[in-house]
Amino acid sequence: MRKLILLFLLLPVFSHSLWAQQATTSVDICVYGGSSAGVMAAYTAKKAGKSVILIEPGKHLGGLTTGGLGYTDIGNKYAITGLARDYYRRIGKHYGKFEQWIFEPHVAENLFKEYISKGNVQVLYSYRLSSVKKQGTTIQEIVIENSDKPSSATNRVIKAKMFMDCTYEGDLMAKAGVSYFVGREDNKLYNETYNGVQLLNKHQFLDGIDPYKVPGKPESGLLWGISPAALPPTGSGDKKVQTYNFRICLTSDPSNQIPITKPEGYDPEKYELLLRVMEKEPTRPFNLIMKPDLMPNNKTDINNNGPFSTDMIGMNYDYPEADYARRAQIQKEHELYTKGFLYFVGNDPRVPEHLRTEMKRWGYPKDEYTDNGNWSPQMYVREARRMIGAYVMTQANCQGKETVKDGVGMAAYTMDSHNCQRIVIEKDGVKMVKNEGDVQIGGFPPYPIAYRSLIPKESECGNLLVPVCLSATHIAYGSIRMEPVFMVLAQSSALAASLAIDSKQTVQKIDVQKLQQWLKTNPLMDNSPADILVDDQDKVHTVLTGNWKSEHNPGGSYGPSWLADDSQGKEKKAVRFVPEVITAGKYAVYMYFPKVKNAASETTITITNGKEVKALTIKEADIRVEGQTAGEWVLLGEYSFPKGKSSYVEISNANANGSIIADAVLFVPKQG
């Protein structure tokens, strides 16, 4: 009888052990986080011949790219390569263009699902990290739990040779014992000037806006959202995190609208500072209290704009290192704040009528986020943990003062930090509210991102890559942290993981030159012929007639420069772009046209394949530039080119009545 009782008591243990074995998955590469980076990493790894699992704690793929940021932050299209560029071309195909950087959330997510389907990638939704098991510097396995109903009974074990952390938070990196930083480094640490505390003038209150509930009476207390903290010295480091928000998708189409209603817990006192802004600027327009960038089909990507907007400043400090419950609470607070902000602008009688009228035009779209109450499930986590890896990207990299040789991707965006705190300062004896932390410093060309910034120190972990929470200072990360760049770095990281597996080495020991060559020769991971780009800086493949002015980083160029002529045809000048065609065949030919002041109304172009010659005239008025870019690829037609260097595209200043810009020509092979 005792034996039977003992057997009965042990049965659950045996069954659990058996289930645990059944719930163990072994793969070559485990990708944690279904962000845009995660999808591209998993697809790349699978196309490289590796077994892969992609784990997404939520129910959707694409992270912020599908979560509302449809008005893509680019910086310079030159920096976007490989599968990331392919992604925006496929978006373009959906909307009938060559490339498209502005898109609806559901269109973006459907495309990520296509990559998953095309790559036959195994995706595990609604599972999140519970623990990490390491042996020495090697991650052996991770345990994941159900995100909706955590229970040890449904935990799963993932064993892999290589792991990739593609989350915005860096949870896998942290649990693996890898060093990281949260907040802002002191300028002195890496010899920077724009890190740390910065009280500047962007998204800033005008002088004199009273911070107290009863104006002029400090004893009444501070208005909601204002910190009592004193302003530290400029450039000093702290643990404050730049603000989060939601990129809001609304629609002006009445047939696709759900009204913006009062959210739970609505408190108009949270928005009192907006009224004080309007007292100073009663005619301040709608697009200066929020940034409603227009997207296809009457939709928006709304971002923060101005001193008091959709950024919930100072309310996210806990988030990077918080547990799942606290993070969910912070995200819910941000959601309710944002919905309340929209409702307040549209309905509070104290808000100027022109703002209420404009706000009433908009509503939540019925066809977006249909399983989440038509609201994005992805908060804009601009920055959380940042790895302190084998190499730390800094302001010097952004500004070209230090250039790495192991680049496996490029960045090109302004060093961009949103505000970190809202405080009270005293100026000329008057107490007033100010925002602190917003930095926007640009004016530099694209620059390489070190492979070493994607990997931990060798002493900490040898089989982990981190393309999102990569190793960079706060201010450098502000330039790198763009969705297309994350995709590029994810592709590079997945290939690096594959090389490490093949060579039986750690990620620190792979042949980086081999990785760089792989990225160059097989950018789409399908062995298709790569595009041929001839840029103005390519002295081997450009031939100049006449004296052209080379302008470095002029703003709007493709890459770091362009060639310019303002002589209006008084002296015959031309730039010949000569591709080196490796594979004979048909190519679609595009020329990059930046929008510039005093541009010639027409540009004369000649194209030849060595036998036939075709002359074209491109009208400046026909060039339409959209989104966060100042130039556009213009199709010159499709042509059959032989192997070799007998073909060319030539731009001249013939009959010019303004500036002629010679920047870049792209030859895109046609399949089939």
TrEMBL record:
The lineage of its organism: Bacteria, Pseudomonadati, Bacteroidota, Cytophagia, Cytophagales. Keywords: 4Fe-4S, Iron, Iron-sulfur, Metal-binding, Oxidoreductase, Signal. Residues 1-20 form the signal peptide. Residues 532-668 form the Golvesin/Xly CBD-like domain. Coiled coil: none annotated. InterPro entries: CBD-like_Golvesin-Xly (IPR033803), FAD/NAD-bd_sf (IPR036188), HdrA-like (IPR039650). Pfam families: FAD_oxidored, Golvesin_C. This is FAD-dependent oxidoreductase. It comes from Xanthocytophaga flava. GO terms for molecular function: 4 iron, 4 sulfur cluster binding; metal ion binding; oxidoreductase activity. PANTHER family: COB--COM HETERODISULFIDE REDUCTASE IRON-SULFUR SUBUNIT A, FERREDOXIN:COB-COM HETERODISULFIDE REDUCTASE SUBUNIT A.
